[in-house]
């Protein structure tokens, strides 16, 4: 059901790789709510993924390659966006994450530090770059909204999440620090959404993911939030209904983060 929540708004969506991606679902929902979009991903993901299919589903949105760790790529992306929209933008979704250490199965006691820095650059620093370049090029319209996606491993330890936990902690911290700056300068809000485990390429790359999912499902009184649920939340955060929400890490997890124990889990452990 569409409510025209984003009628007349223009946005950039980072990170739609395939139809499972949270960014993919967000693009579709944002388009249905009236937004005009630009889609972007790393050049290699443009070649491997199916983003052009998504583009056709969201009004032939331009697809512009940009490595989120490259300031130059982000500059070129914003220049092209200003040209395409004939003005500034109202929202950005940063749905970007990758850890070479996780991908290559390195244990937390045997991390490759060059890869660790890559993890931080791709998954956290890129968020700062996205906002710093936005500020320098003055691309955000007043009362705009910027959202990045996080995970509760920023606050609590989960086996196998490895250096991504540090990346998410940094990501959330950047949202607070840059959120302050964006609010004062331009009335733009910045938040992270801390999402349940979700079946996507990035998600399933974490060791023991199926068990993670099952555990979270049993520990969440409303059940895990799906990628589609997350897309809905992103749309609300881009809409004018949330203008005074900023510098927050917003838990979107079916109640997981506030549950100490659940009946589902008691039943399971009794067996
Ligand atoms: N899936 C989960 O369980 C889960 C839970 C909480 C948070 N998140 C976060 O949600 C976000 C989106 O992930 P997803 O689950 O939709 O998986 P996904 O694999 O579909 O998306 C990750 C995206 O990051 C992009 N990316 C990687 N390196 C990049 C770079 N250098 N430049 C630009 N883009 C790059 C990938 O191409 C991909 O499109 C990530 O930040 C992830 O950490 C995921």
Commentary on this structure:
This protein is α/β, with parallel strands linked by helices and 271 residues long. Helix content is 46%, strand content 15%. Strand 5 (140-150), helix 7 and strand 6 (189-195) form a beta-alpha-beta unit. Nicotinamide-adenine-dinucleotide is lined by residues 15, 17, 21-23, 41-42, 45, 67-69, 95-98, 122, 149-151, 195, 197-198, 200-203.
What does this entry show, briefly?
The protein has one domain (10-270): Rossmann fold. It contains 11 helices and 7 strands. It has helices at 22-32, 43-48, 51-57, 71-85, 100-103, 113-136, 164-186, 201-204, 209-219, 227-238, 263-270, and strands at 10-14, 36-41, 63-65, 89-94, 140-150, 189-195, 249-252.
